[in-house]
Design goal:
By secondary structure, the protein is an all-beta fold. The protein contains 1 helix and 18 strands.
């Protein structure tokens, strides 16, 4: 029989050194316009770390709600930055929220992918208004923070909400990992390791929920400093890039409230 477990609340994770301390995150600077001549959407951005500049390409064959590479509303507002800050997007592992208004707003169910020009370490997602949708991965992740006053954080741009991870045991050593929420979730999650691509699936046609992505460092620089970290080769610090492949998940039996934002 399929077993489902739910973990509510913020899940703290330790840095590879074993000490949990906030780290600066290098966030994507989305630029240009839609590069897909058809019905889908593709855009590029750059992530400038302390050691290199990485190009990130986002591809969504279904299309999106809207793209905001500059100007517009600042959807990462609320609270303060820093290790003791109250922003929905900062925590004891993330020092700083996205500094610009850049955001990709989603609308349609289906697969989407981020591809990096070189492997990166510990990618962080900042998500906005995940109230009527969910994301499904075949890799585990940690929810680092979300906008909930009862948890000590300020509310997000669209209000308050909680995030939780739904782990579905499919048997045979296979698991599915869902990011879901209640209320009006704004927050961050992190994958631990080194990656060259990240893929996931939106689980519904909800207009709209949005995101941007940041990294801790390039994989080479991170593994140089942390040769025994997940995704790094202990003998020489050379990263072994992985990828996060989606697993499409149904939300049978889960009532998720929806509402349109104008």
């Amino acid at each position: 029989m399929k077993r489902t477990t739910r973990a509510l609340g913020t899940l703290a994770i330790a840095l590879c050194s074993g000490a949990a301390s906030a780290a600066p995150i290098f966030w994507a600077d989305w630029i240009g316009s839609d590069l897909d001549p058809g019905l889908g959407f593709q855009a590029q951005g750059t992530i400038t770390t302390g050691s290199s500049t990485v190009t990130v390409t986002y591809t969504n064959p279904q299309g999106i709600g809207f793209y905001q590479p500059s100007g517009g509303a600042y959807y990462y507002s609320g609270g303060t930055d820093g290790p003791s800050g109250t922003s929905p997007f900062t925590s004891n592992l993330v020092d700083n929220r996205p500094p610009t208004t850049d955001i990709i707003a989603l609308q349609y169910a289906g697969t989407q992918t981020l591809a990096f020009s070189q492997a990166i370490a510990n990618p962080v997602f900042a998500y906005v208004s995940l109230n009527g949708n969910g994301y499904a991965f075949d890799q585990d992740f940690d929810i680092l923070s979300f906008g909930d006053p009862s948890d000590g954080n300020a509310c997000g741009y669209w209000g308050c909400g909680t995030s939780y991870k739904n782990i579905v045991d499919l048997g045979g050593g296979l698991f599915e990992y869902q990011l879901l929420g209640t209320g009006e979730p704004h927050g961050t999650l992190r994958f631990t390791g080194t990656f060259s691509t990240v893929s996931w699936r939106s689980l519904s046609n909800e207009y709209w929920n949005g995101f941007t992505v940041g990294v801790q460092e390039t994989a080479v620089a991170f593994c140089d400093a942390n040769p025994t970290a997940p995704g790094c080769t202990p003998s020489n610090g050379v990263p072994e890039p992985g990828s996060l492949a989606l697993l499409g998940l149904g939300l049978a039996g889960l009532a998720v409230g929806r509402r349109r934002k104008r």
